[in-house]
Amino acid sequence: MRDSLRTFFVLASLVPALAFADRPVIEISGANFRPMPLADAAPMTQDDGARAHAAELDEALAFDLAACGLFQVLDRKSFLSDAKEGITAGSINFANWTNVGAEALVKTQLASDGDRLRADLRLFTVGTGKEELKVSHDAPAKDARRLAHFLANAVYRYFTREAGPFETHLVFGRKTAQGKDVMLSDWDGKNSVPVAPGGLNVLPTLGPDGTVAFTSYRLGKPDLFAQRPGGQPTVLVHAGRMATGAAYSPDGKRLAYSLADGEAAQLWIASADGSSPRQVTSTPYFINSSPSWSPDGKRLAFVSTRGGTPQIYVMPADGGEARRLTFQGNYNQTPDWSPRGDLIAFTARDERNAFDLFTVSVDTGKVTRLTQDASNNEEPSFSPNGRLIVFTSIRNGWPQLFVMTFEGNSQMALPVDKGAYSTPDWGP
Known about the structure:
The protein is mostly beta strands. The chain is built from three helices and 31 strands. It has two domains: about 10-160, 3-Layer(aba) Sandwich (Rossmann fold), CATH 3.40.50.10070; about 170-425, 6 Propeller (Neuraminidase), CATH 2.120.10.30. Strands 8, 9, 10, 11, 12, 13, 14 and 31 form an eight-stranded mixed sheet that branches. Strands 1, 2, 3, 4, 5, 6 and 7 form a seven-stranded mixed sheet that branches. A four-stranded antiparallel sheet has the order 15-16-17-18, with no helix packed on it. Strand 11 (about 200-205) and strand 12 form a beta hairpin. The chain is globular, with a radius of gyration of 23 Å.
């Protein structure tokens, strides 16, 4: 891999797809996968304005590169290079980077222009000293972290030919003194803003157009609402019964949810605005909940107690026969269907009464464990490209947001303030 990278400039709109046909790709999964040792040098700055925002950009870029699972990001304490080394190939002593074990090197330079911050990133193959990628981009200085996410996406796309996950968003619940708020943030939990503050607002989901649906008790009963940051809430489902588990279809045109029915609960499908509701399960005395759409919008994964214990099932989105997917364990919940279509992530209670995360193959039913021996881990949600999973964990003593690869590697806490977080949903 060290000598096989190809030069690539981020001019995707101008370069034909054939230009990338022979570019090598890192295979992210499999028994033979080995994270590439990568050195991410501290950014160079050209002026005081750039220096004021360098730490923020640097932190975000380093976190993205470490969290994506592609790289073994090397400790800067081991670096042998001169701190004044430049960002062009001719100014870099690549032997120093070889000696610390780096196979790839990322160099970044920052400059400011008024309230704008400009970043120039270059990626090198250390073994050949060849520049492989050059990215230049600017953004408002207040959005230094988002500028870093743009750069990380460019590096990710170079190595995978896939869209990176770093310019996407999360919604999640956060406990406050006034109740529970629904928050919208960047993918890493930063730059969060309240969507539904005050009162008891739970189980948010993020639609393709940025609308957030959630369950709220603001009218006394647990109803479904839709809202945007700074906007007014719109009632989606007000049935006088508990409505939970809202999930937008991939095209954003439909909404799946669970509605209490006496001692049971049934799944319903409605238009995105809550109109034209239609019941799609009918199992008296049993609970059906937590719907999750397949990427093509044709099927739903959900939890049902119809077999005696909560298990994961799959059924046509318009109703019909349900197929049981999980048979191991007696308490499986919170399914989330990968955008890649092959896996469903879920939470399960194990033999020690601890909650951990697993995936199950939609086609074969094979179950793979992702977390273990790290206290309770729950509520998985796939990134839009299906390569990462965000989840909650109390391994550090309080409910935090974590991220890992879809195979359970590179488990890292998101860089958010200490607090009680719950039910993350990863959207566009």
